[in-house]
Design goal:
259 residues; Yope Regulator, Chain: A; 6-stranded antiparallel β-sheet; two-stranded antiparallel ribbon; alpha+beta
Length: 259
C-alpha cells in the first residue's frame, strides 16, 4: 500500500469523491465561482473536520494555503491526479485558487453551526406535502414512496452540521461483496455532482443528497425537501439499469424492477 500521510489521503478521498471532471460545468463561469464553489468548499471543510484531528487540520490548512499560491506545490499534483484535471492550466488555476481559499477560510472559521433546522421542521414539511411518515429517532424520519412495483424508503436525517436525504433503491437487500462491481458503482456515483452512491451499515446501497444546515433558508425548507427527493428518484430512474448491471444482491425477494 502506498505510504501516504493521513492528510494527503484525506485530500485524495475528498477530491476523488466530489471534484471529478464530470462534476464541473463544461466552462467556468461567474455563477459557479460565486455560488457553487463556496458551497462545495463548506462541505469539504466539514468532511475534513470529520476525517482529521486538530493537528492534522492545522497541517492541512498550511498545505492548502501554500498550494493556493504556488502551482508547483505537491498538493496541487495530488489534487490534479485525484480529479483528473490539469489545475495548473491557466484557465483552471484561478478556479482551484478560489476553491482552496474557500476551504481554508471554512477550516479557519469552522465552528459547529447551531442546529437551525430540527426534525420537527422536517416533519412539518412532510405534513405540508401530505406525505405519510414515521419518526425513527430524535434526528430522523422515514417516508415510503411508490415507484412502479416498488415501495422505496426515504429517510431524512439531521446529523449536525448536515441535513441528509437517503433513498434505498433495493429495500431489504444487501450487496454481495464478491460479485458486485464496486468500481462500476463508483463510476455511476461520480456521474452526478450532487447525488452520491453510498453503502449503508448493513451493506445496502444508498443514494444520498446532503445540505449544510447553516446554508439553508428555513422558510424554503419544504422546497428543499421536495427538490432533494426528486433528485434522488431522478438519479435512481436514470441510473437504474446501470446499477442493476453492477450489483449482485442478497435477499432480493422484495426488489422488483422500476418501470
Amino acid at each position: 500500500m502506498e505510504n501516504t500521510s493521513d492528510v494527503e489521503q484525506a485530500v485524495k478521498n475528498e477530491f476523488t469523491a466530489y471534484y471529478l471532471l464530470d462534476e464541473f460545468p463544461p466552462q467556468w463561469d461567474e455563477s459557479f465561482l460565486e455560488s457553487d464553489t463556496p458551497e462545495r468548499a463548506a462541505r469539504s471543510a466539514i468532511h475534513f473536520k470529520d476525517a482529521l484531528n486538530d493537528e492534522q487540520i492545522s497541517s492541512l490548512v498550511d498545505s492548502l494555503h501554500a498550494a493556493s499560491t504556488d502551482p508547483t506545490h505537491p498538493m496541487v499534483s495530488i489534487i490534479s491526479a485525484a480529479t483528473q484535471i490539469d489545475w495548473v492550466d491557466p484557465e483552471n488555476w484561478p478556479v482551484l485558487q478560489t476553491l482552496l481559499a474557500h476551504i481554508v477560510e471554512n477550516l479557519h472559521e469552522y465552528d459547529s453551526p447551531p442546529n437551525l433546522i430540527n426534525i420537527v421542521d422536517i416533519e412539518q414539511s412532510f405534513e405540508a406535502l401530505s406525505w405519510t411518515f414515521k419518526r425513527l429517532d430524535d434526528t430522523s424520519i422515514q417516508a415510503n414512496f411508490s415507484e412502479g412495483n416498488l415501495v422505496l424508503p426515504v429517510i431524512a436525517q439531521i446529523e449536525e452540521p448536515l441535513l441528509r436525504f437517503l433513498l434505498f433503491p433495493f429495500p431489504d437487500a444487501a450487496l454481495d461483496d464478491e460479485e458486485t462491481d464496486y468500481r462500476r458503482l463508483m463510476q455511476i456515483g461520480s456521474s452526478d455532482p450532487v447525488v452520491k452512491l453510498l453503502l449503508g451499515d448493513d451493506n445496502e446501497l444508498v443514494t444520498s443528497v446532503e445540505h449544510v444546515i447553516a446554508s439553508l433558508d428555513g422558510s424554503l425548507l419544504t422546497d428543499t425537501v421536495t427538490t432533494s427527493i426528486d433528485m434522488l428518484f431522478n438519479f435512481v430512474r436514470s441510473s437504474y439499469e446501470d446499477i442493476v448491471a453492477a450489483v449482485t444482491l442478497i435477499d432480493t425477494s422484495d426488489a422488483e424492477e422500476i418501470e
